[in-house]
């Protein structure tokens, strides 16, 4: 069970943009190639198979949080200490 908890599950914002661009490019490319090939052989099923292969490839390359999607991590601020009570006295402006 420790193996599954050791897998990183985050992607930064730049990585999300890269994954989305890659996904769109793969699906678009495979749909165009599938349409052309299906038209040439006059088999709609061939178009669907090629598009399905593109979907699987895109899913394998974009769904897991690969290290190429985690190169620009965000620097989070430290949490504020909530145990401190405000003094209640506000300084007067002069």
UniProtKB/TrEMBL annotation:
Positions in coiled-coil regions: none
Position of the signal peptide: none
Compartments reported by the entry: Endoplasmic reticulum membrane
Annotated keywords: Endoplasmic reticulum, Membrane, Transmembrane, Transmembrane helix
Membrane topology, from the record: Multi-pass membrane protein
Role this protein plays: Component of the signal peptidase complex (SPC) which catalyzes the cleavage of N-terminal signal sequences from nascent proteins as they are translocated into the lumen of the endoplasmic reticulum. Dispensable for SPC enzymatic activity.
GO cellular component: signal peptidase complex
Name of the protein this chain belongs to: Signal peptidase complex subunit 1
Region described as Disordered: 70-94
TM regions (residue ranges): 22-41, 48-66
Protein family per UniProt: Belongs to the SPCS1 family.
A Gene Ontology BP annotation from the UniProt entry: protein targeting to ER
Organism: Papilio machaon
InterPro entries in the record: Spc1/SPCS1
A Pfam family this chain is assigned to: SPC12
């Amino acid at each position: 069970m420790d193996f599954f908890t050791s897998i990183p599950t985050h992607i930064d914002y730049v990585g999300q943009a890269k994954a989305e661009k890659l996904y769109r490019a793969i699906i678009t490319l495979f749909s165009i190639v599938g349409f052309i090939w299906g038209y040439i052989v006059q088999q709609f099923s061939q178009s669907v198979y090629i598009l399905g292969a593109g979907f699987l490839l895109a899913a394998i390359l974009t769904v897991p949080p690969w290290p190429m999607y985690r190169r620009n991590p965000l620097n989070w601020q430290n949490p504020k200490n909530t145990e401190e009570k405000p003094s209640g006295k506000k300084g007067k402006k002069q």
